[in-house]
Amino acid sequence: MTDAPKTTFADLGLSPDILKSIEQKGFKHPSPIQAGVIPLLLTGNKDIIGQAQTGTGKTAAFALPLLERLDASEKTTQAIILAPTRELAIQVAKEIGSFGVKNSPTVTVVYGGNPMRKEIDALRKSPQIVVGTPGRMQHHIRNKKLRLDKIRYFVLDEADEMLNFGFREEIEEILKMTPPKRRVLLFSATMPRSIMSIVNNYMGDHDLVKVAAKEMTNTNITQKYYCVKNKDKFETLCRIMEDEEHFYAIVFCRTKSDTSHVATQLSAKHLRAEAIHGDVDQHEREKILNRFKAGKTNILVATDVAARGIDVSALNFVINYTLPENYEIYTHRIGRTGRAGNKGTAITFVNGSEVGRLRYFEKNLKVQMQKGTLPSPAEIIKKKKLHLVERIEHIVNNENITALRSMAKELLEEGTAEEIIASLLKDAYAKDFEINEYQVIHEDKSRSGGGAYNGRNRGRGWGRHNSSGFRHRKGGGGFGGRRGGGRPPKGGRTRPNKV
Ligand code: ADP
Ligand code: MG
Is 491 exposed, middle or buried (0-12, 13-18, 19+ CB in 10 A)? Predict the structure, then answer.
């Protein structure tokens, strides 16, 4: 990944109105297929083959130029888009509609199973763009409800799937009826040989825009995600830390106030965290970084800008507390771990409406992130008990306890050794071992507000998930436990922080 200046949608030659709706939709940068296809479609005249993995934004790659180039004042159908399934056809129509500005070309969708009457009424208005499945499209053409004589663009979306579904004949029949000067735009994730006969028979001189999926080179980084509501993120973070013996991490947040808030909450739980952001002055910044590098603090809560250039090779975790704006930033962030041959884990928190964007990152980066499962409170408590036993063994073997021996003798007159130890443990750690201290954290299954990213193939596996709910401890409680990986990164066994 380079730091070279990125292409913007404006660089591609799109008009200010469309740029505004792209921005409103939340797209920050064009995906590679968009950067390749959009200028060709806006200016050139050749046919185009666009090949890129599923989920890389092929729809917008042809939709945005169509919105620019079609004549909305002319009431004729100027573009047809074939999609293999009704869901995809609806999705494409929706995506096009979502970029619509005032006086944009109109779009209608036709597919098997949709009320015929409704479609015919819509077609009578001569929408500039018609999206549909091949069979239903063919039906309307045969019945002269859809006229092809003014077609300027013929889009075959998901061409490989269309052929898999056996739509070759329909496609060819429709293609033959379009005017010879139309541009054929073929989009596909793969280019099986079967597509080539369509290319050879129906496409003229064409440009090929092929986006090879990038390989994530660093296989030392395990990438995981948790889908939780924003309000549960902090508890989720705590749970993850509690499960780790050793937690040395940068926690990335979007805003300065988020970093301060998270760092403060962590500190309130006696975890050694500090925030770093753009408002921290240089002198203070150096001090914070030095403490972090020395392992005196083990959690740095940072904004992207503030974390720039931080190179600490022993970090074993990067937490994306908020989803980064784009996958380049994601890559930069997670690259802070898994350095110098060490293993690292990158964990991303998303809420239900952000899952689609995460999928978009995955597709563009060619990675599959594992869905994380939080340990149950019972598992964590078991671990905490084990740690405590280890720590006590360590104290018994290594600490000088002479000064307290006489007190211990006196205490032993109060009850059996077992009773006394249990009472001390209860007094000190009861809350740490109390299952009811944990809140239930549910997976966020809401997809509200995610319109921009929701789509086919998104949310893979979510439906199957049994969200029995993971619990998390409420508040702090107890003292001196090893909560949150209180153990510093280096230097062997060290005592956790005192409260
Ligand atoms: P494909 O057709 O390549 O499978 P889609 O066009 O369906 O991919 O896009 C996948 C998802 O990515 C959609 O939710 C879409 O809104 C989103 N998307 C497309 N382009 C961008 C972009 N430049 N930035 C962010 N999200 C994008
Ligand atoms: Mg598509």
Answer: exposed
CATH superfamily of 221-376+438-457: P-loop containing nucleotide triphosphate hydrolases (3.40.50.300)
Task: From 453, 456, 458, 460, give the residue whose CB has the most ligand 1 atoms within 8 Å, as the site to mutate.
Answer: 453
> In the chain, which segments carry CATH 3.40.50.300?
9-210, 221-376+438-457
At 21-45, the pLDDT tens digits run 999 998 989 999 999 999 999 998 9
CATH number of the structural domain 9-210? 3.40.50.300
Give the predicted TM-score (pTM) of the model.
0.53
Q: In what order do the strands lie in the sheet with 370-371?
A: 273-276, 299-302, 249-252, 317-320, 344-350, 221-227, 370-371
Q: Which of the four pLDDT bands, split at 50, 70 and 90, describes residue 194?
A: confident
From 73-82, 194-203, 388-397, 482-491, the region with the lowest mean pLDDT: 482-491
Tell me if 316 sits within 8 A of 343, measured CB to CB.
yes
- DSSP character for 364? H
Q: Show the ligand 1 pocket: residues with CB < 6 angstroms.
A: 27, 29-31, 34, 52, 54-60, 95, 356, 360, 452-453, 455
